Amino acid sequence: MEYVVVKWLHILSSTFLFGTGIGSAFYMLLTSLSRDVRATAVVVRHVVLADWLFTTPTIIIQPLTGFYLIHLAGYPLTSRWIMWTIALYLLAGACWLPVVWLQIRMRGFAQDAVKAGTELPPIYWRYLRYWVLLGIPAFLALVVVFYLMVAKPA
Per residue in 54-108, pLDDT tens? Predict the structure, then answer.
């Protein structure tokens, strides 16, 4: 593929990855904090769906296009900015995997609460804290990856 096409796919997929992540986090957190069980059940269900539809494919596309761009541009893999990008991307991924598991579990807790006509259980709130604590380093890592991707510092 032509460099410009691969670069466009890389930028587009990074936008989907980052945009889906920040948007999903914003709505899931605010809806959860509203303590509206029905709304939370709907939003968490949609967040899980968004991860499958948007985040998962972009997590695959990003390294494929990134390594191909590195190859096409002739950058050595040992460049500091590339090594930092890879490390931070892996950190974000290491945070994302448990987040997905937490979201799936939280979706079940919220759906069960709706069916039972009860409030969200204490374990939902514990998982939400873990979800936030994992989301912060993932978000910051991707912000730095964006910078490194654009600046390519020496």
Answer: 999 999 999 999 999 999 999 999 999 999 999 999 999 999 999 999 999 999 9
Closest CA to 109 of 57, 56, 66, 45: 45
Does the pTM surpass 0.85? The reply is: yes
Residue 52 to residue 42: CA distance in whole angstroms: 16
DSSP conformation letters of 75-137: --TT-HHHHHHHHHHHHHHHHHHHHHHHHHHHHHHHHHHHHHT-PPPHHHHHHHHHHHHHHHH
Sign for the CA dihedral angle at 21, 23, 26, 30 comes to negative
Amino acid at 107: R
Answer whether 84's CB lies under 8 Å from 15's CB: no
How many domains does the chain divide into? 1
